[in-house]
Amino acid sequence: MNFLELSKSMTANEALREYFKSIPAKERSKLTSSLMTQFQVSAKTVENWRYSRTNLKPVYRREISRIIGKDIFSKVTD
């Protein structure tokens, strides 16, 4: 099962978490750094997005998809 199949009926936070789980550790670290730089947030904020402690606002989704290179939020229901 690939990531896009997993992303059916997910929240944005769940989609981000599943994407992070689907990539190697080195890429996760690079992506975290990219998100921190782009949005000027801490690693803790990115972690909070991943684990649904803080809602991932719609305004960030398009830019996250651009950084990743694909729309991981296409099946998001929230």
Helices and strands, with pairings:
Elements: H1 3-6, H2 12-22, H3 25-39, H4 43-50, H5 58-68
Helix pairs in contact: 3-4, 3-5
Explain what the structure shows.
The structure is a single chain. The protein has 78 residues and is an all-alpha fold. Helix content is 63%, strand content 0%. The chain is built from five helices and no strands. It has helices at residues 3-6, 12-22, 25-39, 43-50, 58-68. The longest helix has 15 residues, at 25-39. The model has no long low-confidence stretch (mean pLDDT 89).
| Cα separation of the termini | 23 Å
Structural class: mainly alpha
| Number of H- or I-type helical stretches | 5
Compute the number of strand runs: 0
- The parts where pLDDT drops under 50 for at least 5 residues are none
Can you give the mean pLDDT? 89
How much strand content do the residues show?
under 5%
Shape field = globular
- What is the alpha-carbon Rg in Å? 11 Å
Largest sheet entry: none
Give the ordered list of helices and strands: HHHHH
Report the helical percentage.
55-70%
Features:
single chain; 78 residues; mainly alpha
Summarize the structure.
With 78 residues, this protein is mainly alpha-helical. It is 63% helix and 0% strand. 18% of the residues are buried.
